[in-house]
Amino acid sequence: MAINIQNILSDNAKSMRRSAIRDLLSVANRPEVISFAGGFPNPSTFPVEDLKVIMQEVLEAESTSALQYGPTEGNNKLREILAQRYRDQGLDITMHNILITTSSQQAIDLTSRIFINPGDTIVCGLPSYLGALQSFWSYQGQPIGIPKDEELEVVVKTLISSGKKPKFIYTIPDFQNPSGITMNLEQRKMVLEIAKKYDLLVIEDSPYREIRFEGEAQPLMYSMDNERVMLFGTISKTMLPGFRIGWIIAPVEIIDRLVVAKQSADLCTPVFDQAVVARYFEKGLFEKNLGKTIDLYRNKRNHMLNCFEKYMPKGVTWTKPEGGLFLFVTLPQEYDTRELFDVAIKENVAFVIGEAFHCDGSGKNTMRINFSFMDEQKTEEGVKRLSKAIERMFEKSTK
Amino acid sequence: MAINIQNILSDNAKSMRRSAIRDLLSVANRPEVISFAGGFPNPSTFPVEDLKVIMQEVLEAESTSALQYGPTEGNNKLREILAQRYRDQGLDITMHNILITTSSQQAIDLTSRIFINPGDTIVCGLPSYLGALQSFWSYQGQPIGIPKDEELEVVVKTLISSGKKPKFIYTIPDFQNPSGITMNLEQRKMVLEIAKKYDLLVIEDSPYREIRFEGEAQPLMYSMDNERVMLFGTISKTMLPGFRIGWIIAPVEIIDRLVVAKQSADLCTPVFDQAVVARYFEKGLFEKNLGKTIDLYRNKRNHMLNCFEKYMPKGVTWTKPEGGLFLFVTLPQEYDTRELFDVAIKENVAFVIGEAFHCDGSGKNTMRINFSFMDEQKTEEGVKRLSKAIERMFEKSTK
Known about the structure:
- The structure is a homodimer.
- The longest helix of chain A is centred in the C-terminal third of the chain and has 27 residues, at about 285-310.
- Chain A has 2 domains: about 5-45 and about 290-395, Aspartate Aminotransferase, domain 1 (Alpha-Beta Complex), CATH 3.90.1150; about 65-285, Type I PLP-dependent aspartate aminotransferase-like (Major domain) (Aspartate Aminotransferase, domain 2, 3-Layer(aba) Sandwich), CATH 3.40.640.10.
- Helices cover about 45% and strands about 15% of the residues of chain A.
- By secondary structure, chain A is an alpha/beta fold.
- The first copy, chain A, has helices spanning about 5-10, 10-15, 20-30, 50-60, 65, 75-85, 105-115, 130-140, 150-160, 185-195, 220-225, 250-265, 270-280, 285-310, 335-345, 375-399; strands spanning about 35, 100, 120-125, 140-145, 170, 200-205, 230-235, 245-250, 315-320, 325-330, 350, 350-355, 365-370.
- Chains A and B meet through helix 2, helix 4, helix 5, helix 7 and helix 8 of A and helix 2, helix 4, helix 5, helix 7 and helix 8 of B.
């Protein structure tokens, strides 16, 4: 008789939640569906020709180390390069403040692992990045969403006075996933002041920061407080996601704990991929290609916004992000995008329901729209179909 | 004031143990030291020229998918290829029984994550693979070592009657790390019978199986019971470790749980690296190169054994492994290899103390010797130095 898995699962396993996005995407993957659901970079931004050259160079010049096991902390050249790049943005760090991780998802996971006990609270946005929520849940953490920024302090105080002091405040200050919104300087200062006042860690998850179409960059929170901020970065949106390279910048004593956690998680980040990325930065290719990516995505955002203006029925609103990959769309309060999803999928268009990003189950009238992946023609057709689906839902409810 | 990390660490973080090997290796890394300490494959076995061709092919033919995010389960072509290879070894599986992991260390980690609650016991060898012990500890699991194979049942029964039923039996049946020993058919049957009798899962961690110098391969335990065995594999020793590619073969309902755990751990295994490995298998290069690797390592083992015969003082014994990367060396009971390590490092030779592989702190008179990495000349010189260090320790104690 086969073993009964249910009987032996850990409490962690029981508290894990399957990604709603993942299940939705399996429907959205049919070829006839125009999908705004994924968070995929556009493959035309992948630096294929540069990689052809660099990979041959790595195999020619450093195969002995690049194909071998590597240090848990990561490729030292890459750590040096990243340290310099962040020093240029005002961070007071050295390479010893940097751990290379197997994607920024692992950055979230290792951080959760070393800090979260079952029942611990984590303060985050409403909405917030689903992958982070999943990681918190997988360690039986309890994410608590802040409805409005100005309510952060009251939420923190309430948690503390009920004996549920949060382990950290999780933020995505630049072009947040899913909302596309960027925190201004005042908001950043406020978060750091509250963190200091109540002695809390702050996570600054920053996968989209470099993809700014317009307006001025706000300072990194880590540059404003290098004692209680952990900064997560990645090449997934700015170079390519298929290598799974990310990093954590943090005070050295936190890096030290994360290294021990990473030893048992996967020993080291893919060594060859790190060597390629280090050379890519070193040759100045990152900057060269990023400019083109930003131009492409700016055009795509403009086109998406134009299509929204042109086709969306009255009552629908959406964000106008200054960067990143996503629009966030809001329907009138009484509508549920889960219901819309079923209508939309019949029209062969897909999105992600906003509820998936709300740890408290709210946000039922919202959805996330990706604009980086689809070409212009399909984007227009997709927005048409989506508008039609929304109109149909509106009509049905007024009958 | 900086945040006090100690105050906010999770219980998991507090139960993590830093790798003793890692700290020893930092001393062993001085260029004048001949190190038998690491578990590194020989870089001359890395298929550099084949990789040059394959990487260009992947970039030419499938860059759009190979540089993008990929499915959490892994590259389907690679899963198909692995499924076929294991069917050829008698396993009754399909690709749906396979999850590609970011190294076999992650296989151990995800398995620990979905099964181990704080305080749970895991039955393992004395000695056993340190990286597995670290993973068990990091989830507050309690590895219990079996002194002799024939004592497995009594240990399991004792644990069960004390309310500490083990979550699984962790084994490395082929060329065990660190002992180099292989389980024969009777031992495999016994483990499976006990597992069945007491309704336990069995982990068959199998990173070295393909590296057999002589003698006949024993059947995989998974081929003898496909309802309660989880099999872990990797390319780290047979192709290269710098990609971090491993896999888990398990009943589908376990794979399903592992996939959810992997979503929050790192989303997917490096996609480009998987595409390269799939083509490498597809072109028959794995078999072609493996033969050369086996020949090289057989010579290295023979040479190492010859040097041991020639130089080791009386009273020292060692295993004669039929495959793998390691010898396991035993000194008379009264000697401590931690003490020897300090003497040896002065002689500029390094090894790993056996105690590190014993979850109960025993094995103080043992050490692990790697024979895959060093060239012949250095091996002879290293064994000479090591013998000298041992003689010195023997003499000191008889004074």
